[in-house]
Amino acid sequence: MTEHNPMADPKEIPEENVQLRCNRCNKPITPATAILTETGYRCAECVREQQRAFDTTKKLDPFLGFAVAALISFAGSWLAGLLGFFTILVAPGVGTLISNAVRLVVNRRRSKALNKAVLVGAIVGALPLLILAILPLLSGSGPLLTGSGNLMPLIWRAVYAALVSTSAYAQSRGLRI
Asked: Domain residues of the chain, as ranges?
């Protein structure tokens, strides 16, 4: 006698083992495969179909989102070296600015690809001045090795890069900080 695998295809689940049904398509689902939504339990296929309906971007939108995020992030990174401690307060605001500008440019369309493009754009925009601040350290003529100078602008640019990219990504995904 063979034992039944509860993780098997829902079509093969014996009727006596069915504890749940998808509230959209009424297909039998197990507690292990059920996905809890705001309206009840659904099967993975119905959830995937519903998520596809929210992907509204056009082909060019991720590229536009990347470009907008990179440009605004670069402008903010220039200020980060000058602002010092206030970078902690300004960087999340720049991330929100990036998210709102991208939404305006892409006409409020959304997708996971656009969210990732915003994240990568914010990182890429913050990197050039950070790398320029690191290069003297790598060449041996930096303030760390010569003892002349301050590493704080470098540290604030690194803090800026982390804060602006995570803030822009969270805002583009719809999370509110």
From this structure: 10-53, 61-173
